[in-house]
Design brief:
Helices cover about 35% and strands about 30% of the residues. By secondary structure, the protein is an alpha+beta fold. It has an eight-stranded mixed β-sheet with strand order 1-2-3-4-5-6-8-7, with helices on both faces. The radius of gyration is 16 Å and the shape is globular.
Length: about 190
């Protein structure tokens, strides 16, 4: 599926410092590692996940340094047809605390508002992720609740989507995510 948000060159938007563009298959394994915070992702999981990504309407973009072309992170718009589509971002550890997160969210939400008339988003942030909470508080953000049991939710999604090929990833996540973690949900108004 060709994403309706991207032009023929897989381009979404750019600022003075960053470029947002569609994720390429060659980058996808690194994207999954960064997204899940794990060192290795099984090839069969990468392949099945890539196929699913190409079949849905979610918008997944890489954030690149405009000058060097290096990977900075990613940004996603999940369920873009929903009344309040969800935004998810990640910035590479070596690029954090340099303003990339703010610039990424601002460019992404400004472009969605200006070109596609999408101006209200859902944001889910782990309760212990203070850096992310501080980043999003720079925007018009309102808390709307929380969601306990992040591991069970992720595990169920992996099982539904990938069946047995997701077992290795579930085990890695189980070791990474403390069952006490929970998400705080917000509305972001662009």
């Amino acid at each position: 599926m060709i994403n309706k948000f991207l032009d023929d060159n897989n381009f979404f938007a750019e600022s003075e410092r960053i470029t947002l563009s569609g994720i390429a298959k060659e980058e996808y394994s690194e994207f999954l590692k960064a997204d899940m915070g794990i060192a290795e992702v099984p090839d069969d999981f990468v392949e099945s996940s890539w196929k699913r990504l190409r079949m849905n309407d979610d918008l997944t973009l890489t954030v690149g340094d405009k000058e060097t072309g290096e990977y900075v992170g990613y940004v996603m718009l999940q369920d873009p047809e929903d009344e309040f589509p969800e935004i998810a971002i990640a910035i590479a550890p070596e690029r954090r605390e340099q303003g990339y997160g703010y610039e990424n969210v601002k460019l992404f939400t400004d472009t969605l508002r200006e070109k596609y008339d999408i101006s209200v988003f859902t944001v889910s942030i782990r309760a212990d992720n203070i850096a992310s909470q501080n980043l999003f508080k720079k925007f018009d953000l309102r808390e709307i609740g929380d969601d306990c049991a992040i591991f069970e939710d992720l595990s169920a999604k992996i099982e539904k989507t990938f069946g047995n090929s997701g077992e290795h990833v579930r085990e890695l996540l189980k070791n990474k995510i403390d069952n006490e973690d929970y998400l705080v949900r917000y509305r972001l108004f662009a």
